[in-house]
From TrEMBL:
Signal peptide range in chain numbering: 1-20
InterPro entries listed in its UniProt record: TRAP_TAXI (IPR011852)
Name of protein: TAXI family TRAP transporter solute-binding subunit
Superkingdom as given in the UniProt entry: Bacteria
Length: 328
């Protein structure tokens, strides 16, 4: 896929939605919708709840977020139509399309379509300062590591990353808020987060106790870049009060997805609501600074929903090939 954007188009997008509510053909629109997110205390839930409420208010529908196990489960829920929308990272999206989603092994989840880019998910490690763990090499053998909800991006990829880096651990799962409490109570040694930043659970921990946010060394980062579908990423120093300088990390892109059978005009209206005023999205969560049209080219995995493709084609200079549009 190739995408071209102009500064004029970007400025126009920031000004106002391209359509008014009455401009849409609402034939076959649902009266309500659900967005599959992840556990409370994580970025998916905060971000997803925000855009679900925004879309519901703007389009006069009942919309809300659903707590789920994260990207893998969201792919399954959206594929079956149990959720109209969901949020996923590109790694789990690819595995789901190929039929290797652990929730339904062998099922190729081909009825999930891309809607819009969200943000990058950095992989980061947090420990209590009192633990003395200041680097990956400091993590002791048999450390109790919380990897997030079962089936989440973090749970899918971070254990493999720790294996690649030679860390021996006991694997623990749970919601981010619960894991943060366990870390504070001494029931965990480390939490391995894969979530948009700032992660609410980390921000809360910083208020309550002293923590170490552990970065990868350059060698460790390169090891992960060679082994996994991730990109180099620096966690900005102003993300957390604990950081004094950017922290070296790796990251994976997130996209909002839709059931491919939803009416094109409905999905186009949703994309317009989210993408036409980035300031509103940033007010929902800072990670939405990356929820911009120029990041549409980060989707190299999923077919685009026809309604989403129509919005990008009509309101930006994006060129989305027909063979990357569902049904095209």
């Amino acid at each position: 896929m190739t995408f071209r954007f102009t500064a004029i188009a970007a400025c126009a997008l920031a000004a106002s939605p391209a359509f008014a509510q009455d401009d849409y053909d609402r034939t076959d629109w649902p009266s309500s919708f659900t967005v599959g997110t992840a556990s409370q205390g994580g970025t998916y839930f905060a971000y997803g709840s925000g855009w679900a409420n925004l879309v519901g208010e703007e389009l006069g529908l009942s919309g809300g977020a659903e707590v789920t196990g994260g990207p893998m489960q969201n792919m399954a829920l959206v594929h079956t139509g149990d959720a109209a929308f969901g949020m996923t990272t590109m790694g789990p999206a690819r595995e789901s399309l190929e039929g290797t989603n652990p929730i339904a092994p062998g099922l190729e989840m081909t009825n999930v379509c891309a809607m819009f880019p969200m943000y990058q998910t950095p992989f980061s490690v947090t420990a209590l300062s009192s633990s003395g763990i200041e680097s990956i090499s400091d993590i002791p053998d048999g450390a109790r590591i919380g990897f997030g909800p079962a089936g989440s991006t973090s749970d899918t990829y971070f254990p493999r990353m720790m294996d690649e880096l030679g860390v021996n651990y006991e694997r623990r799962n749970g919601g981010w808020s619960d894991l943060g409490g366990q870390l504070q109570d001494g029931l965990l040694d480390v939490i391995a987060f894969a979530a948009g930043i700032p992660v609410p659970a980390v921000s809360q921990l910083e208020v309550q106790t002293d923590v170490n946010i552990i970065e990868f060394t350059d060698e460790e980062q390169q090891t992960l870049l060679d082994a996994f579908p991730v990109a180099a990423f620096d966690i900005a120093a102003d993300t957390y009060s604990t950081l004094e300088e950017p922290a070296t990390s790796v990251a994976m892109w997130n996209f909002a997805v839709a059931n491919c059978d939803l009416p094109a005009s409905f999905v186009e209206a949703v994309v317009d609501t989210v993408m036409s005023d980035n300031a509103r999205m940033v007010n929902i969560h800072r990670a939405a600074e990356s929820t911009t049209p120029e990041n549409a080219d980060k989707n190299t995995v999923l077919p685009w929903h026809p309604g989403a493709a129509a919005w990008f084609r009509e309101n930006t200079d994006a060129e989305i090939p027909d063979d990357m549009v569902h049904g095209g």
